[in-house]
Please model this.
Amino acid sequence: MTLNSTPHILLHTLITNHFNYCFSFCCIMCVLCLCMFLVGKDHNDYYTLVLERREQIMIKQQVLTRRQAAFRSEIFPNQFNYLIQQEPFSSYLIKDGEHEWLVNSEVIPIIKDYYTTHNHSFHYYNAHPDYLIAYQVAPILNKTNMELLSEIQKGTWDDMIVKVPRLAPPKVSYIAAEKFHYFFLKSELFKNQYNTIEQIALKTTLISRTRLQEYRNLGLLPQPDHLKGTNLYNEKEILEILPKLKMEFKKQTPDSKNHNAFDLLSSEQQQLITKYLKYRENSGVTEYEGYRSSPSIANKKKTLETMKSKLSSTFILIISGRCGIEEDFHKNPLNRNKVPAAFNPEVFDVLNISKDDYAFLASNRAPMTLHQIYHKLRPFYYFLLENFEEEAIESDDLKDFRDFRRIALRVKKFLQQFPHTINEINQSDYEQKTKSFLTREQMILIKQYILEDVRTIDPIKNATMWQVSCTIGVRPEELPQLKINHFKLNAEGFIDQDENGWGNLMLPAPISKKGNSPSHRDFHTPVPKSTVNQLNQYLTRLYKRQGENNPRGQGYLFRPDYTLPNLQTKRIRFRFIERLRKRLDFLEENQRKDFIFKASRHSLNNTIMRTFITEDHSLNEAKRTASDHQLRHKPTKTVGEEYYLDDITKEQYYQVLDATINFPWDLEKLVLWEIEKGYRISVNPIQKEPEENVEFQQQLRRIEEQLDVIVEKPKHMTELQWTKQRHMLLEQKNMILSQKRGGG
Model:
């Protein structure tokens, strides 16, 4: 038989080599056994020699064990063992006896090249962002691995997959026969518009992955019909509806941290409160026992909510007292959703009130809180008594009128227990807070401390609120309602600036204190240059986080969620102020203890009023009015000034602000600014000022304080005395200033 083909030649060579190998091995074994018998060597030593000689012969004859071949191929043994059994490498196996297979060494360069090529391919596709391996695609398509493999083998996905041969056996037995890895091209799989919920969440700051999955589980996310049953969604569509979806979800989801006290009341109690609130909402006036309620309510929606909350919470406490519940469960944040089993609202009739109910209230609330409760309860009970009295008078039954008198007496006795005015509260019970009035330097230091607060989530937001309140006087309760478009904006949605760097705030009456503290009708509220810069820095961050689908220049400025422009913060809790109290070592101990966010607004007024403007002395006469405008107060004027004196001009208003609060919010630049304005004598704070300068400042301060006291005519002075006194003080002030200029 002629072996003219390559496989036949190879087989003939292998058989010949194998025969020679076996014959040589037998001869060596005989010789070694004889030597062992004659010399008396240990059996193990000679067995080792036999094995070593055997390996030498195998290498010489180009035949290796699989382990040897694996090491020479630089492939892990388990991978080599898998590959050598696959086509075309299985033809290089040679059986040695019943159980062992040997490897022709000629296969080593071939299998090594094969391994290197496909190992590189696997890692390339596995790491490439445009490809997904099959076991990752299966859950996306809502299929099992076997279902997807079956479809791949049928050719269903041929136009979008790349096959890479396996280099090791599959780790799971049910795909043991599968010889390829399959990689899907994402662009073909998703058609450049579909993606998984998890991947969509990574592409937006609008929402977390967990919350987006929650929306999916609730069935809130739209899904194209042909993708039903898969985990694929139209990415663009989901991103567009997210802001609206988040807003609706927030409205529909109850706040578990704020259990509604109103919901814990009986239906009868709820009806009485609702009836009263509806009456006040429609400008109803209650007039009873010399008391008359105001027909108008400032910030109506918010005020009515506060009334509802105060009344409900008070009744909850009274019911708890009657049920013997000592724990203040509704106010305890850890137990706010755990209503005690003994709680029963039916034990309390709103009109069947007594002094005993007050006693329980007083044991659980501070005197100042009781004073505040009184001013919410009185109009409510007077409204009920007024209606009850009308019904009793119109009734023909005398018993109805006697019932009314009895109920009215109980209610009056109950209300009499409360402190009606602050003066009725003992000073030991009513802790007067110590106000802090900060210098410009201290305002800046506090802003720096806020920015350094590592425990806060958003220090830039907190620092911006602080600076806004320090310079334009926005109250803490107004900050949550402040909108971006209350400021004058440029085309890009940032705070617009005039030629001198000033911005402008047009704060409307409805969001101001009691609805009657808006910005000036003509001048509005000027925003200093440094505050404009801080606001624009904050807006840059806000616009980046809110997403491209939310328009710029709209929505609440200090919103609880950047991605929801129209979601208002119910109440801002200034916990960052509490955290920095210990760092305020420039304040007295009692000031640090009582330090609050509103110190910013207090300091604004103090800075304007206590700054003696040296550049133009006439501006000192305009300071009070300018301060009232900036703080949105009704200007403090005498009767004569009210009716016979013009308002300050816009130019005077801006000049006063420029000389007092338009300072740089940088400590080093502030020093230079104050020297330029004449408010600081030396750059070196350690260097003492000359005694004459200190005396000069003290004299001016004393005169300013005296002028402040008699800004309006005191009752004990006649008009002539008041005029002379003011004239004398002003002359003294001008004389001191003239002496200072002459001395300089």
Notes: The first helix runs from residue 6 to 39.
